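Input record, target 12 of the design panel.
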């Protein structure tokens, strides 16, 4: 090592002394510093060796790619923008060369492609659908198949694509997306136009394919934002690769908004034309397809301007169907008149009585279809009821008229008046009911309420029990048969007897039977007693037959066990409290030759077109056919006796009135044309108690009996 030192000239008497420190001693062998220094070269050698092992197989490829890498580097140097550009003057110095433009465009396209590919890969189809896209309503139909009512927050009924006619599908495709079956799920042209309108002019415009619209309906919100549109396009692309075109079209047709509170083509067909989608023709389908552009603008019932727009779009859609070869010119020529829709949605016009019908039908549907409340509330069910529209209207009109008359003649009593009625066919179908004046303010159905005694309307069940089981004159002895001609004592006030003697009540008094008005009839046959509604023979007949047999016969005929009264002699005179539906069902058993079918209100259920298994009741033997015929003949005698003029015109009619000794209920039950109808009129102040109140003339007089008037109106005899 050489050390250079520069000093000024020294005088003779000055000296310079330089002290050089000794070199450091080398570290002792084996020290920590020495070990670190010796380990470094070894670690580097190991790292280089590992790198050579990893990259060794790639060396040939690297050598072959090296020329291309050098060329790319040269191109990159050429494309590198130098500003200002050398060799240019003026504004040209700031304009990139064509190579630079090409490089920038290629890089941008590559980055955009990479971005879209990454976005597509990262986009997942949502698993949770919008609530309003899955919830449906339940639709109820009259017995003739016409819509009766609907329930649910969302008016929608999903239909399989196979049940939607081709004309309906192609009307929608012609209006919204004619290239649906060939496009990739999105429209680049439409998206570009929508972006231009959204960004450039501050408003929004469509341009979406049916796949995109379906994605918006079931997965996304309706917000018109760039982020929502981008997400919509990504999901649409992925959905188009995952689902078939038919599946997407089916989903779209079942979730689209058509106005009038309806989602889906099925509910739109019912809301605008009162028919199922399967019944639509191409002209009606074109009108509905036009609504997809905006029901608020194209519903022709909302104004003249709307009507004009709807007609123009209807013509355009039909012409488009011809252009895409989905409608022949000959058929197009037949559609010259615009298919005017209904003025209002018929499914909203349910009426007060329909609420009672829906209540009965929904309860039965869940029970017979084994559906939980949760399943039923999800909707999508089509409930085809047994209710007859004409009979229901006749019964409702008759009771409405009677209510008005009662308010006029008996204003005080009419305030607490109640009317219940039901018509049941011999095969168990409930055809009509009257449940009350307003279901929204009255929380129960009067046709199904077991609140007041049946009175003498119960006598046919006692008569049937006697004919079926016979009577016991001695305790434990054999039964003695009875016939309609068997005589009984019809006098008023005779004591009721048992094989041991008179029947004593708990207060220690003999129980005696009484006739209406205290009238005595002497010896009278059972058939005559029933025809004339004589009480005393039937109270004794019930004791002779056995009150347990009376109870069993009444239940087998259709009365519910919990409505049967106490098993005392008064059971035979109607201390039971059946509902109007059950009383009509019991009389229907006699009209059906002694076979009873449980009353039912639903004949068929489907969910989105697929049948739902339903336990429909089957007939079973309640009393013998001969017994049923004899009861029916006695009821026919009763009808002829009370109403000879009407009976002459209606030979098959049979029925009788029913009253109780406290004048708290008035009934009429009978059969005409294999349909049994029961009507009850009573008074009850529900704000105070559930005790029946005296009728006070509300049920009319024998000459002008209100229950019979309602019965005759309901059966078409009035």
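The sequence produced for target 12 reads:
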């Amino acid at each position: 090592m050489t050390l250079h030192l520069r000093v000024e000239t020294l005088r003779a008497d000055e000296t310079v002394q330089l002290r050089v420190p000794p070199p450091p001693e080398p570290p002792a062998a084996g020290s920590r510093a020495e070990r670190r220094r010796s380990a470094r070269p070894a670690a580097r050698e190991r790292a280089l060796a590992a790198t050579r092992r990893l990259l060794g197989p790639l060396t040939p490829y690297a050598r072959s790619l090296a020329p291309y890498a050098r060329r790319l580097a040269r191109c990159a140097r050429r494309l590198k923008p130098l500003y200002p550009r050398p060799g240019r003057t003026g504004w040209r110095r700031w304009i990139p060369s064509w190579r630079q433009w090409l490089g920038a465009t290629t890089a941008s396209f590559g980055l955009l492609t990479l971005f879209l590919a990454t976005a597509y890969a990262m986009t997942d189809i949502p698993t949770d659908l919008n609530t309003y896209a899955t919830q449906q309503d339940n639709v109820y139909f009259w017995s003739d198949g016409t819509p009766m009512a609907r329930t649910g927050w969302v008016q929608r009924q999903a239909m399989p694509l196979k049940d939607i006619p081709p004309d309906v599908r192609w009307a929608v495709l012609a209006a919204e997306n004619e290239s649906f079956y060939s496009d990739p799920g999105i429209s680049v042209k439409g998206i570009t136009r929508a972006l231009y309108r959204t960004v450039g002019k501050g408003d929004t415009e469509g341009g979406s394919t049916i796949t995109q619209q379906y994605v918006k309906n079931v997965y996304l919100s309706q917000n018109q934002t760039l982020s929502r549109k981008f997400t919509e396009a990504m999901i649409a692309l992925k959905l188009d690769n995952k689902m078939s075109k038919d599946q997407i079209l089916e989903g779209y047709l079942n979730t689209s908004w058509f106005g009038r509170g309806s989602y889906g083509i099925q509910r739109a067909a019912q809301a605008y034309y009162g028919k199922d989608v399967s019944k639509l023709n191409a002209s009606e389908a074109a009108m509905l397809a036009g609504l997809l552009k905006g029901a608020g603008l194209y519903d022709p019932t909302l104004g003249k301007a709307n009507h004009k727009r709807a007609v123009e779009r209807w013509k355009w859609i039909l012409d488009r169907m011809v252009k895409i070869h989905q409608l022949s010119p000959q058929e197009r020529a037949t559609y010259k008149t615009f298919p005017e829709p209904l003025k209002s949605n018929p499914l909203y016009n349910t009426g007060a009585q329909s609420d009672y019908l829906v209540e009965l039908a929904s309860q039965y549907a869940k029970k017979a279809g084994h559906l939980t409340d949760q399943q039923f509330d999800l909707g999508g069910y089509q409930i085809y009821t047994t209710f007859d529209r004409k009979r229901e209207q006749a019964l409702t009109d008759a009771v409405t008229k009677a209510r008005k008359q009662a308010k006029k003649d008996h204003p005080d009593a009419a305030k607490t008046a109640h009317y219940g009625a039901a018509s049941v066919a011999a095969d168990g179908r409930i055809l009509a009911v009257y449940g009350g004046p307003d279901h929204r303010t009255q929380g129960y159905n009067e046709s199904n309420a077991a609140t007041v005694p049946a009175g003498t309307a119960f006598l046919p069940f006692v008569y049937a029990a006697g004919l079926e089981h016979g009577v016991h004159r001695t305790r434990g002895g054999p039964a003695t048969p009875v016939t309609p001609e068997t005589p009984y004592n019809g006098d008023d006030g005779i004591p009721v007897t048992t094989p041991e003697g008179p029947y004593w009540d708990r207060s220690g008094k003999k129980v005696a039977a009484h006739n209406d008005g205290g009238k005595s009839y002497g010896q009278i046959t059972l058939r005559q007693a029933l025809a004339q509604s004589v009480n005393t023979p039937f109270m004794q007949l019930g004791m002779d037959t056995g009150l347990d047999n009376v109870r069993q016969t009444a239940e087998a005929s259709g009365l519910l066990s919990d409505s049967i009264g106490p098993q005392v002699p008064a059971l035979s005179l109607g201390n039971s409290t059946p509902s109007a539906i059950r009383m009509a069902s019991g009389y229907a058993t006699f009209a059906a030759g002694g076979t009873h079918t449980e009353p039912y209100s639903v004949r068929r259920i489907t969910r989105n077109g697929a049948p739902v298994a339903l336990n429909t009741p089957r007939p079973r033997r309640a009393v013998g056919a001969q017994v049923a015929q004899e009861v029916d003949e006695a009821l026919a005698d009763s009808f002829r006796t009370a109403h000879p003029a009407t009976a002459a015109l209606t030979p098959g009619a049979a029925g009788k009135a029913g009253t109780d000794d406290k004048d708290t209920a008035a009934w009429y039950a009978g059969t005409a044309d294999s349909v049994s109808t029961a009507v009850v009129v009573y008074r009850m102040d529900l704000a105070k108690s559930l005790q029946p109140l005296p009728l006070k003339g509300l049920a009319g007089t024998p000459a002008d009996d209100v229950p019979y008037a309602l019965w005759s109106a309901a059966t078409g005899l009035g």
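The longest strand covers residues 417-425.
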